[in-house]
Amino acid sequence: MINKINRSNAEWKSKLTPEQYKVTREHKTEQPFVNQYYTTTEQGIYACVCCDQPLFDSNTKYKSGSGWPSFWSPIIKNSIGIKMDYSFSMIRKELHCNNCQAHLGHLFLDGPPPTGLRYCINSTSINLKKYKTHSNPSV
User: Fold this and answer.
1) How many structural domains are present in the chain?
2) 26 belongs to a structural domain
3) What is the pLDDT of residue 137?
4) E-assigned strands of 2-102?
5) Host domain of residue 119
6) What are the φ and ψ backbone dihedral angles of 115, each rounded to 5 degrees?
7) How far is CA 6 from CA 17, 84, 102, 136, in A?
8) Average pLDDT per run of 10 along the chain, which is 139 residues long?
9) Model pTM?
10) What does 94-139 look like in DSSP terms, one character per residue?
């Protein structure tokens, strides 16, 4: 279930780093290839940096060569909203968290099976919550 979060700009600025604010609240894009999760292969759930809403499972992450973390499907389809983005003389589908309206990235139709979609996401807009490993105390 999506619980809408509304905060003032001042509240967001106090919660986020300047880079996180710039990307999630001002709809900017981080630098390609040098961002935190582009090459990460650790297993877990990627959640919205603003509201902690689970967005992507690492099992849907793949190497797109785009310079940003890419996923072929969200965990829950309605956790991510889509709106048209006409900036920079392009027509793209902008992705945002449906819980807090944080800008996440863009959606492209050049992804792998089974969806053929590429959710191209700014690392700055997500946090990886690693799966917990269970140790066997009898070993």
Assistant:
1) 1
2) no
3) 53
4) 44-48, 54-57, 61-62, 70-71, 80-85, 92-97
5) 34-130
6) -100, -25
7) 18, 22, 11, 44
8) 77 95 95 94 96 96 96 94 83 93 96 96 97 59
9) 0.89
10) EEEETTT--EEEEEES---TTT--EEEE-GGGEEEEEPPPPP-TT-
What lies within 8 Å, CB to CB, of 125 at 6+ separation is 20, 23, 24, 48, 49, 50, 97, 102, 103, 104, 105
Q: Which residues are designated catalytic? A: 120
- Distance of alpha carbon 44 from alpha carbon 128, whole angstroms: 6
Domain assignment present for residue 59? The answer is yes
122 found inside a domain? yes
Extract the tokens encoding 7: 């905060």
| Residue 22, H or E segment | helix 18-26
Are 88 and 41 spatial neighbours (Cβ–Cβ below 8 Å)? no
CATH assignment of the domain containing 67 = 2.170.150.20
Q: Which residues pair with 57 in a beta bridge?
A: 45
The residue written with tokens 């300047």 in the block is: 18
